[in-house]
Amino acid sequence: MLYARCARRAWAVALRILGSRADAEEVLQETFLEVWRRAREYDPSRGGVETWVTTIARTRSIDRKRALGTVARIAEDAAHQPPPISSAPVDPSEAAALGQEQARVATALRELPPEQRTVVELAYFEGLSQREIAERTGDPLGTVKTRARLALEKLASLLGRG
Predict the structure, then answer these.
(1) What is the DSSP-derived secondary structure letter of residue 85?
(2) In 3D, which of 13, 10, 9 has the Cα closest to residue 121?
(3) In sequence order, which residues have a C-beta less than 8 Å from that of residue 131 and are 6 or more positions away?
(4) Radius of gyration of the chain measured on its C-alpha atoms
(5) Which of 30, 46, 49, 160 is buried deepest, with most CB atoms within 10 A?
(6) HEC letters along 107-138
(7) pLDDT per residue as tens digits for the range 28-63
(8) CA 21 to CA 96: how far, in whole Å?
(9) H or E stretch including 102?
(10) What residue ranges of the chain have pLDDT lower than 50?
């Protein structure tokens, strides 16, 4: 049930960071092995289970990307291929809720000033550290840190969690 509930989002995050279906699928497997091993560490007061699983997938993806030591490879058909299908059917109400949540986040991201949105996208989707973002954008490290903090505060406010 947990796989059916969380795998699609975890796979999408891994694919976005890594750019390779094969690497994303391996990270997805590693993610659920880690979830199994660390299940006792899950604390519902710190966030939902979907967020916890997605965070593990994101961390594993960044670790893999850094270990490869190369820019993520982009698979030609990645944007056109659906993620692996679990044996459990997708609950339409869960799929609708996920779609609504994704739309809320996308809307909130669009409301950020462009320089803050860029920092968030580089950090979250490409797995760059603040120092790496500063190097890529040519902005001072302090500016990048400030933009990241302001962006996260505004996102929390816009998404009703702040």
Answers:
(1) P
(2) 13
(3) 141
(4) 16
(5) 30
(6) HHHHHCCHHHHHHHHHHHHCCCCHHHHHHHHC
(7) 999 999 999 988 888 888 888 888 999 999 999 988
(8) 25
(9) helix 92-111
(10) 70-77, 162
At which residue do the structure tokens 């500063």 appear? Answer: 134
Q: Is 131 exposed, middle or buried (0-12, 13-18, 19+ CB in 10 A)?
A: exposed
Give me the residue spans of the domains in the chain.
Answer: 1-76, 90-162
Query: Domain 90-162: which topology?
Result: Arc Repressor Mutant, subunit A (1.10.10)
Asked if the 1-76 domain carries CATH number 1.10.1740.10, the reply is yes
Chain centroid offset of residue 130 CA: 16
The dihedral over CA atoms of 107, 160, 113, 115, expressed in degrees to the nearest 10, equals: -100
Local structure of residue 48 (DSSP, 8 states):
-
Q: Is 93 helix (H, G, I), strand (E, B) or coil?
A: helix
Question: By C-alpha distance, which of 76, 61, 62, 71 is closest to 30?
Answer: 61
End-to-end Cα distance, the chain: 30
